[in-house]
Amino acid sequence: MSFAYDDSNIFARILRGEIPNDTVAENDHALAFRDISPKAPSHVLVIPKGRYVSFDDFAANASEAEIAGFMRLCAQVCASESVGLEKGGDGFRAITNAGAHGVQEVPHFHLHIMGGAVMGPMIGTR
Ligand code: AMP
């Protein structure tokens, strides 16, 4: 499957250092930074450094090293934001939006990790 990546998207610009971000953590394969419009007391976005449009693109096409690096950074964020369950955090919601039906705004794969309060129902009622 081919996923057309737009190099002008805002997260690509963040990765190129063209616009600032509030970095939480980083490794060779992924970057975690605070959402500019937080929907929870803690709202961190984790993105791969590679050119992946969406979750399904990343899951299908990223290397094992990229997937491992991304997931380990997610674990680091959960721990550092004190929401992860291992060390007694109160929990979090991790979501990713893809495409039009997912209402994805930025076409570079990102995982939202949100915590610090009860997140409420998983999705709005239809
Ligand atoms: P999504 O709808 O899943 O594509 O979410 C995109 C998210 O990116 C939104 O929650 C925005 O608030 C966030 N966002 C957009 N621009 C920036 C930026 N420059 N820095 C941090 N977060 C951003």
Summarize, please.
With 126 residues, the protein is of the alpha+beta class.
Keywords:
4 helices; HIT family, subunit A; binds adenosine monophosphate; about 130 residues; five-stranded antiparallel β-sheet; alpha+beta
Which shape, going by the Cα principal axes?
Answer: globular
List bound small molecules: adenosine monophosphate
Mean pLDDT over the residues: 95
Largest sheet: 5 strands, antiparallel
| Residue runs with pLDDT of under 50 for 5 or more positions | none
- Derived from helix and strand composition plus strand pairing, the structural class reads alpha+beta
CATH architecture: 2-Layer Sandwich
The CATH class is identified as Alpha Beta
Overview of the molecule:
This protein is 27% helix and 20% strand. It contains four helices and five strands, in the order H-E-E-E-H-H-E-H-E. The chain has helices at residues 10-15, 55-61, 64-80, 99-102, and strands spanning 23-26, 30-34, 42-48, 92-95, 111-115. It is globular. With 126 residues, it is an alpha+beta fold. It has a five-stranded antiparallel β-sheet with strand order 1-2-3-5-4, covered by helices on one side. The termini are far apart. It has one domain: HIT family, subunit A (2-Layer Sandwich).
How is this fold's topology laid out?
Elements lengths: L9 H6 L7 E4 L3 E5 L7 E7 L6 H7 L2 H17 L11 E4 L3 H4 L8 E5 L11
Antiparallel strand pairs: 1-2, 2-3, 3-5, 4-5
Bound molecules: adenosine monophosphate.
